[in-house]
Amino acid sequence: MNKDPKIVRILLIGDAGCGKTSIILALVGEEFPLYVPPRAEEITIPAEVTPEKVPTHIVDYSSQEQNEETLKEEITKAHVVCVVYSLNDDSALDKLQTYWLPLIAHCTEGPQAKPVILAGNKADLPYDMEAHSEKISEVLDQYAEVETGIECSAKELLNVSELFYFAQKAVLHPTAPLFLPSSQQLKPKCEEALKRIFRISDLNNDGFLDDTELNEFQIRCFNAPLQPQALQDIKNVVTKNISNGMLDKGLTMEGFIFLHHLFIQRGRHETTWKVLRKFGYSNDLSLREDYLSPLFVVQPESSVELSSMGLKFLRDIFKKYDKDGDGALSSTEQQDMHSVCPSYPWDEQLVSITVETNINGWVTLNGFLAFWILQTSHDHLHTLKYLAMMGYSSLMNGNLTTAVEEVQFHDKRKSVYHCRVFGSRKSGKTTIVRGLVGKQDVKVAPEEEEIEAVSIKAFPIAGRQLHLIVSELILLPCMC
Binning pLDDT at 50, 70 and 90, where does residue 2 land? Predict the structure, then answer.
């Protein structure tokens, strides 16, 4: 499941007589049912009466009325599976490991395990609590897909609503992608995602989140400012638990990761998931497709240019990573900038002969903006993808598509124009094209000589900044 689901489908399975149906009927009727049918009909709980405000479908399984093929189909369709067992049946926990959990794993499609909740029912009857706790701890350690275990009683209405709350939470805020219970450590993909989020949120790129940046982060993710006492509490807990987590300049990356580790350990997965989803992550901790490539329909006769918001974001990004303030991005600064991107957006050498650079061959602000203007003109979806990776939607508080705009050829807003240079090989086209940005004498690798040259440069005209893209077109000799 890549996005927050529009519904949550909960399946209850378990041995006959363990109380699955009684639990469902007790939840709906708020009392223990006098008559219990072999299987409860599928129940839909409206969003407004669920803790997570998501419509929830609850599905029962009965071995009396359904076969194992149907059971497998229901497991496949479910978002979360609750395995119910009788606390007073000593063999029930063994069957969890020998039958139910392996069956769920077998029916799960894809690399991501389906979350499981273990529900020990009939807590109103005598059972060996110590032996049960020891055994359930072993199961939790052995099966990462098991989110939690809960003891309940349909007869006494004990932890019945809590069972379904945990089931919803297991779908919307799963533990498995974030945390390894056996080692009590964050998973590598989770840690990498949090590092990216820290880098994006570190607006001045000094390696710390100061009070202002922390408050902006809080507003961005939770739509509320960070109160002074809450801020101090964060500082105190980090300082107490990790030596280099909070320094004079602010919260370090180590401290930021520690906080989320603490949230997860304390069962507050929803806090970390809210942050992850704000920055585009799906349940498998990859960046969502809708986050990277939103729908943006362009008419055939139109072109796409960066909007004022898109240009502002790119200027801010340039300023953030130009750490020495020399007006250009060195190779190291470019690598730092692209550390928030899973893949590198450009060929540094190719860029250096396409746009304006300083005497060291480093991209200037004008060259940096020109590159992205060129890229947007050629493939605006590529631009949107990398702006998303660099945090546009999160930092600009807007839809990603606000970074670009559709323009008609005669539109007064149009600011990018194209010129093609035609000619046969060795006629001097490349020299003309690269000469636009003073790169006519630059030597390039042999494989890049085969690439049709392109350059882009800004010109101030009538009080506006217009960009001219010049590219070559090789005319092959006629073979007729």
Answer: very low
Tokens representing residue 356 in the block: 């304006």
Question: CA-to-CA distance for 307 and 405, rounded, in angstroms?
Answer: 6
pLDDT: which is higher, 61 or 348: 61
Q: Above 50 in pLDDT, residue 479?
A: no
- Give CA angle at 401 (400, 407), nearest 5°: 155
Q: Residue type at 268?
A: R
Looking up tokens 């497709």 gives: 289
Residue 244: its pLDDT value, please? 93
- In angstroms, the CA 205 to CA 320 distance is 6
Burial class (CB in 10 A: 0-12, 13-18, 19+), 325: exposed
pLDDT in tens, 234-246: 999 999 999 999 9
- Between CA 13 and CA 4 the distance in angstroms is 24
Using CA atoms, how far residue 423 sits from 353, 433, 438, in Å, is: 20, 12, 20
Q: Which residues contact 285 (CB under 8 A, 6 or more apart)?
A: 177, 187, 189, 190, 193, 276
Q: Which pLDDT belongs to residue 441?
A: 75
The string of pLDDT tens digits covering residues 145-170 is 899 999 999 999 999 999 999 999 99
- Give residue 285's identity as a one-letter amino acid code: L
Q: Are 25 and 36 in contact (CB under 8 A)?
A: yes
What stretch of H or E contains 145?
Answer: none
